[in-house]
Queue: 2 jobs
Job 1
Amino acid sequence: MIQKKFLRLPISGIIVSDSPFFIPSLEPLEALTLSLQKLGQLTPVYVQSYKQSYRLVTGFKRLDALKQTSMEYIDCYLLSQTISDLALFEFVLEENRVQRDFNVIEISHILARLSETYKLPRRSIIDNYLPLLGLGRREKLYQVYISLRKLPLAWKRALIEDVVSPELAWKMSKAEEESRALFLDMVFILRLNKKLQKEFWHLLRDIASSKACRIGEIIQQTDFQNILHHIKLTPQQKASKVKDHLIRLRYPQYSQVQDRLDGLLKKFKLPPTVRIQPSPFLSDDIFHFYFRAKTTEEYIEHLDRLNHLAEKEKIDQLFELVK
Amino acid sequence: MTTLFKPQEIIIEKSVLNCDLTRRITSRIDAEKMIIDDAEAFIKNSGQPIETIQAKSILLARQRGPFMRFCPGTPRHICCLYRNLDVVEGCDLNCSYCILQCYIHSPYITIYCNTDDMFNELDDAFTKRPDEFFRVGSGELSDSLTFDYYTELGVDLVKFFAPYKNAIIELKSKNVHVDKILSLSHGHRSVVSWSLNSEFIHRTEERETPDIPSRIEAAKKVQKAGYWLGFHFDPLIYYENWETDYKKVIDSLFAAIDPQNIAWISLGALRYPPELDRAIRRNHPDSKIVLGELLPGIDKKYRYFRQIRIDMFRALYRHIRQYSGDVFVYLCMESDEVWNKAFGWSPGNSAILKKLLDQRVMLSE
Ligand code: SF4
């Protein structure tokens, strides 16, 4: 049980700089400021005596919010000076955790704090702290999360809002600033879910590597931009066009044959009840013919139509494509 | 030229301490030694990451399962029905595309030293089934010759197979440690074969292996010793100058080797399961092979777009045919359809391919 003593201290007398307990956060202060103005300070912050003054241990956001109001004093609990900084930091984590889950950026700062300020070995952080933060004991998770604090603000916000996944943000952190920014813009414009983000990123990464260019350069190409900013298309339609475009760039020989096949099938003018389908990725020379019929007449009609295509040597062209 | 692999440590499972192979290896390698009770438990508890094949230590262990197993093959593909000899697992040559990166779940190079059991098992199989022909290879989970400098397993295998009429051993390698097998009486029961690739792929993806001219030079020595030879252009990798580059290798091969001495040549295009894609990107970040037009098939393995494979096989097959009309060329793990399109004929199924390969090296009565 931590020993504490209640105090009311002037706000100006609290030391916050270089605090080993501070966890940077991007959470907005407005709601907290409003509540303080309306109801006053409901929960005291924790402080510790430090260099003839007091240093803040918990309640950094509350203090910032109080500074926005006209209040001059802050309610505090004074903690014993004998408690080590690391024990206090663990107390900070616990105190915060009971109120709400840490967001991914806060987790990133916590891991960095444990490693850089408290000099804990990586293995001990993974085994003892990752589970406390709601993560599995995995080296990879440590690597991913600790890197997130260095991302640009827009990415941090996208992470906190759960628009992008920490894994993708980590992978993208190796790309240059401009590519990262353009990729994130694309995610918002196309409203890509996480699965598609990953797929698009993999395609872009490989295209950029094989063309020895940056991901940003591909996104900035006119064809790409025309799709992104097309005024008549919905985000889903744009996403599907962007995907086609990327597949063409990534798999040019396959796409050429697929395009010729699509063109040919279009010319066949088949009704929706008749379908000609190649094997996935044209992996062999087989086509599957499907049709649906409710009556004998419909059945005969479909057969006639397919026979007509064969007589006109159009089916030959189909098989020719995959020869 | 590559440098010899120098293990940092030799870990020895108690039960193989007195095996001949253990003694041979430990007397030739000057490294720290550690004796352990049980290899499987040791690997499990070692806590070492197993993600890379850059193993630094050798583990001398007991093979508990059978040494000889059928190659797993792939459904709907024609397989040569080869038998793998699981006596060494792991390799020091670190090729970017090496499948061992996702097959071997041990951070050590494991050498199974209870070779008496292995030879008993092989003898049992060959004598109990005299009508069956066994094509066996030790180069699936390792390179057959890369550790021969210490193990002389190649020597043991050549000697062991020499008297059997219904079996042949293929020592498949990228290495050039052949001196010890040159003077053996092999009875034409061994095929010494090399994986070949273009010089460009050697420089970029097989950087730690001997270069192509050295491999062909080693093959020339082995040819002089009267062995059957095999050549595997596998994995063929598609890049801008693939055709000219691979043809150049074929030219130098036939300039040095008499087609009469070649048991077989195989062609196989780069293919791999999704786990290997991840392993290559992780272990070989400079490698460009994952950027090829590789598409997932029904078995989830990635292969080059069919047309690319057919074009490569066709071009190299025709080039080989310019040198020899009857050297046996086969495709590794391809469908009947691809065989027909690339070669103009197909064995139709795995059993016929096996028969054709067996016939190449069967002794006439
Ligand atoms: S030589 Fe063969 S076994 Fe060894 S790393 Fe290269 S591909 Fe793998």
Job 2
Amino acid sequence: MSRELLTGWGRTTPSAAEVLHPKTVAELTQMISLAGKRGIIARGLGRSYGDGAQCGGGLVVDTTDIKGVIQEDWEAGSFKVAAGTSLDNLIRYCLPHGWFLPVTPGTRFITVGGAVASDVHGKNHHKDGTFSRYVNSFTIVTPTSTLLATPDINSDIFWATAGGMGLTGILTEVTLSMIRIETAHMLVDIERTQDLDETMSKMEEGDESYRYSVAWLDCLATGKHLGRGILMRGDHAKSTDMSIGLRKFHSRHQSGKQNADTSLLEFNPTVRLQIPSNIPSGLLNRATVKIFNEIWFQKAPRKLLRKLLPLVSFFYPLDSLGNWNRLYGPAGFIQYQFVVPFGAAGELKKAIELIATSKYAAFLAVLKRFGPSGNGLLSFPMSGWTLALDIPLGAPGLAELLNKLDELIAGCEGRVYLTKDSRLTPELLPVMYPRLSEFKEIVKKTDPQGVFTSDLSRRLDLVSH
Amino acid sequence: MLQAAVAERLEDMKDSFGYPQSVLVLGGSSDIAGATLIELVKQRCRTVVLAGRNRDAMGSLATELHSFGATVVDLVDFDAVDVKTHEQIISNIFTKYKNIDLVLIAFGILGNQNEGEEDPLKAVCVAETNFTGAVSTCLWTVKYFKHQGYGTLVVLSSLAAERVRKNNFIYGATKAGLDGFAQGLGDSLVGSGIKVMIVRPGFVLTKMTKGTKSAPMPVTPDVVARSIVKGLELGKEIVWIPPFMRIVMSLVRHLPRPIFRQIKI
Ligand SMILES: Cc1cc2nc3c(=O)[nH]c(=O)nc-3n(C[C@H](O)[C@H](O)[C@H](O)COP(=O)(O)OP(=O)(O)OC[C@H]3O[C@@H](n4cnc5c(N)ncnc54)[C@H](O)[C@@H]3O)c2cc1C
Ligand SMILES: NC(=O)c1ccc[n+]([C@@H]2O[C@H](COP(=O)([O-])OP(=O)(O)OC[C@H]3O[C@@H](n4cnc5c(N)ncnc54)[C@H](OP(=O)(O)O)[C@@H]3O)[C@@H](O)[C@H]2O)c1
């Protein structure tokens, strides 16, 4: 046990807690009884941007020492893994055998436990839904018991835990189904759009024919370029796709693999560059970000079809930069992600306009269309448009802008993503998450004393004790 | 009647902008504190504890804060000079509210320089309030902040602390002592999750300065309040009001004493 100062990936709102590093599930289970009045919460790889994996003055259980595959069914593609296993490890383990994650966020450095607790989504949400849809069962340790939950057994706890931000207990084992793929490559169509209307209509028309779809928006472009972007859509490349592109691809990458089949599934990415810890705040300001966005936009092809991309560069473009969050300097940054229903396209435009015409340096934003919501009580995705953007802290007035956006979003029955949040007010939470009261009722049963607490739950009154 | 209309919500947490949800003011009837609280309630502050001697003044501030959206405004008896009682008072508040995101040290007296020179006991009272009382309350507060793992302590110092003047040296010295204490305290807490922000206003038009001769460029309490809120958002360690006084005072600080004592300010 050691006292550590913790923050989320955005590096705002630090708080100190006693951090525990259990090596076995038995150790972890015992630790819950050590929780005092300040409570306890699980922490995975700390990739949530806000204060969800912190518990000021209390206990934080680092789950990452309990990892690995416990049981596997290579035929069915079903794997029981320790909750502290990272997606990176899981991909390295399964991909050579032709199995891949059914849903993956924009980084592979998160734990399976964190993926369930935030019920994460990927670029395929409009087709495939969230992570919890592929979870067959999990084991969770609550203050009163250790129990198995599936969508049928203890289903209330199952759906309170999917997206429940660690407040129902600590996940120890998760069984999930992976998907079959033939290659470690993606076949991608890339298209530049000139403005928001074009971006949105292209997505509305074309998304259904792609398994994965996302648009990068230049949130600093204003006027007639407002909402211009780069669409990247595609699917896993089949081995037949590869035989067309393989020669070209391999000669360019000078890969000397003899066996085509294993090389098709090769996955061996490395972190290329570590960002040092002494970058000052202010490096990413409106001027530098504007230049970056411009270059990014101009260098993208106007239209390029069926491009073969390594899976890593399609799903995890940022993962090759270690600790890239340090680029924002000690002041840290906010990631703001919201979703509004399809019917509220006007509000979406208004929000993008407010951001683009403000004085803040919003980095490349990601726009996506979500499919229908799942059953997770606090799960974020729902049918509609979602936008995520990074904004550095340090320019006054940002709080006001984001408050205004909150109101706009809540006003059209949209919501912000809790795993990225560090500033929402408790008043808007029940409006954005109408199933909050059901969630609270279940937590009252699993945790009658209110042992599970995080800085997030304190700030937003997520649980009522 | 105004006391803790026990709210549904019992816990609080500051946000990314350093904006608190729960605030304790020691010196709850201070004009600067009142203006600051209104700005904080306009942000996200919902729970306020006012600790002080003047219940009437704190009561009317409570009404005003409710009208701006505060859900709980609690009044607590507190005397800065009665240091033996501080532990109990502060401990009760932290226990009752579970989290206090920000504590504002706002009590203070100007005293009267001439009277203090005539009757040293009066000077001692200024020192006991502004310095001793603050040392005690800051240290108790930090103990509880450590327990909760985070917290922001805002200390109202003064420009007078930057260089003590001959015609105001009793007050000036107490603030200089307080300012130095708060700087050292803040430095000692780096990495702990606890922040100390020192506020150095010039002449502010409040009941403290009423009837005294105004220094050049007086400001109103809401100017101070807005600077404090901005300082929190930007994570400042020292807030100068007005901001350019940082440069002026760094010159004043380096003036040779024979010259400094000639200047009438
Ligand atoms: C570059 C980047 C891109 C991202 N892209 C996406 C994206 O596309 N889609 C998306 O949905 N998210 C995305 N995220 C967010 C990220 O996927 C989630 O925040 C995820 O929960 C982080 O997992 P973690 O293991 O780091 O958990 P932490 O950040 O450590 O914790 C997050 C939450 O999970 C809880 N938790 C962790 N482990 C357990 C456990 N064993 N039992 C119970 N609760 C637990 C914690 O209590 C906390 O509430 C992205 C993050 C980054 C940094
Ligand atoms: N006004 C300025 O020009 C100026 C400039 C720089 C710094 N400051 C500092 O800012 C702070 C707030 O001052 P202000 O301008 O807001 O003046 P203020 O309205 O007079 O506030 C000071 C408060 O301190 C309280 N107080 C005094 N002695 C106390 C004690 N023993 N116990 C409890 N409370 C006590 C007073 O309460 P009672 O009602 O009980 O007396 C009063 O409400 C002070 O520290 C002051 O030194 C002021």
